[in-house]
What we know:
Layout (H helix, E strand, L loop, with lengths): L4 E9 L2 E10 L4 H13 L6 E12 L1 H16 L3 E5 L3 H10 L6 E3 L3 H5 L1
Parallel strand pairs: 2-3, 3-4, 4-5
Antiparallel strand pairs: 1-2
Helix pairs in contact: 1-2
Amino acid sequence: MHPVIRVTHRSPTPGLRVVQLAGEADPGSTETLRAALDKALSRLPAPHTVVVDCSGLEFCTTAGLNELLTARERAAADGIAFRLSEPQEQLEQLLRVTGTHPLFDIEPAGLLESMT
Length: 116
């Protein structure tokens, strides 16, 4: 089975890493998502901020959310800010239902472009 998630990495400014997600973050794509988040957090030089652009993420299950939570914890342990940008309504609802919404810094639409 092929992953249903597409990932793009970019570093628009020194210290800022953007992981752009498109498609679906579900059990079939967790390995791809985990690898993408690990790459963003571990590539040298270390970033001060990692932003996960969720504007193209159409669907996210708890498996995808668990990968985001794991990456957020790792980032916090390493002193790296970890933010979500432009989550779609389905992801927003998943964050609210699971009580994890307060754990994430969430960037509103357009803010990511102003950072680059």
